[in-house]
Specification:
With 168 residues, this protein is mostly beta strands. The chain is 0% helix and 31% strand. The chain contains no helices and twelve strands. Strands 7-2-1-10-11-12 form a six-stranded antiparallel sheet, with no helix packed on it. A four-stranded antiparallel sheet has the order 5-4-8-9, with no helix packed on it. A two-stranded antiparallel ribbon has the order 3-6. A hairpin with a 5-residue loop joins strand 8 (112-116) and strand 9 (122-127). 26% of the residues are buried. Residues 1-13 have low confidence and may be disordered.
Length: 168
């Protein structure tokens, strides 16, 4: 017998509707960490970048993220007082061996990042591309906070997404 924990009993994955009332978005995700640093930024760690599209600072304390496995033990919850300033970025390194920050793995063959508010309602999600080992590419919003998702051939960690891109 197959267990259906976390899914509906007919085998279909329950899809939670994405309703973002915060104005904070997953803006760029890098999943192809390298064994040795070859870029001007630390490409040895995967990252998730958030963008606050509003004119007000937002306290992300209690907000959380998961990857597509949706394992509650892997949920990363932002500490109280984590502020993302107005029209600014906040970037988290993702490292399975880290003592702080998200410790779930992000797959270079494609993954999904899910972003939840304090009530564990899904407010944003991003599906990442499938990359070869040597491709220093990221997945993100073509312009900061927009709905169009592209693959960036120039990663812009903790900075505006105005780099070169290809369709995902």
């Amino acid at each position: 017998a197959e267990l259906t924990k976390g899914t509906s009993n007919n085998g279909a994955q329950e899809k939670q509707e994405v309703i973002n009332t915060t104005g904070v978005f997953i803006n760029e995700v890098f999943t192809n960490n390298q064994d040795t640093q070859i870029s001007s930024w630390d490409d040895t760690k995967d990252f998730i970048e958030f963008f606050n599209s509003t004119d007000k600072d937002v306290n992300l304390g209690g907000y959380s993220i998961l990857d597509d496995k949706m394992d509650e033990e892997d949920r990363y919850t932002f500490p109280n007082g984590t502020i993302i300033k107005a029209k600014s970025f906040l970037t988290l390194n993702v490292d399975k061996n880290a003592t702080d920050g998200p410790t779930f793995g992000l797959g270079k063959g494609g993954d999904k990042v899910l972003f939840y508010n304090k009530d564990k309602k899904l407010i944003d999600e991003m599906v990442t591309g499938d990359f070869e080992d040597n491709e220093i590419y990221s997945t993100g919003r073509k312009t900061d906070g927009s709905s169009e998702i592209v693959v960036f051939t120039e990663v812009s960690k903790n900075a505006s997404n105005n780099g070169k891109s290809i369709k995902q």
